[in-house]
Amino acid sequence: MRNPAYTYAQTCVYKINYHIIWCVKYRKKILTPEIEDFLKKELSRIAAEKGFSIEAYEVGEADHVHCFVSAPTTLPPCQIVRYLKGISGRHLFLAFPWIKKELWKGHLWNDSYFLETVGSTNETAVRSYIERQKTHQR
């Protein structure tokens, strides 16, 4: 019986989730409700087009974005971040040209980002499970 919490591929079963956070350049508070609505639609479109899903997302303090992403094994997390930041930034500049005047050098997003894996179990539980495997084989 298949567990609906997992994705079943030809050669593996997986559940890969990431919490990703990135900020507006210079922490400028430019993510107004109108821009936020556009951004959420854009992020969903990017995810669907590139083969991953965004389970939840929110703008914080009008200057940063939180995304909870579920991805396949074939898509590196750094590539997901490149897609989300690069494509959304370009499309936001086209839809809201006044943003460029607020930021210097034509960059919407800060170069850095935060990325954390998110699982249904914690590190301590996994370590304990692996250690218990020695005793089951003897």
TrEMBL record:
Q: Which residues form a coiled coil?
A: none
Domain of life here? Bacteria
Q: Which InterPro entries match?
A: Transposase_17, Transposase_17_sf
A GO molecular-function annotation: DNA binding
One biological process term from GO is: DNA transposition
Q: Which ranges carry the Transposase IS200-like domain?
A: 13-133
Tell me one Pfam family matched here.
Y1_Tnp
SUPFAM superfamilies this protein is in?
Answer: Transposase IS200-like (SSF143422)
Question: Which NCBIfam families does this one have?
Answer: transpos_IS200
What name goes with this protein? IS200/IS605 family transposase
* Organism the protein comes from: Candidatus Blautia faecavium
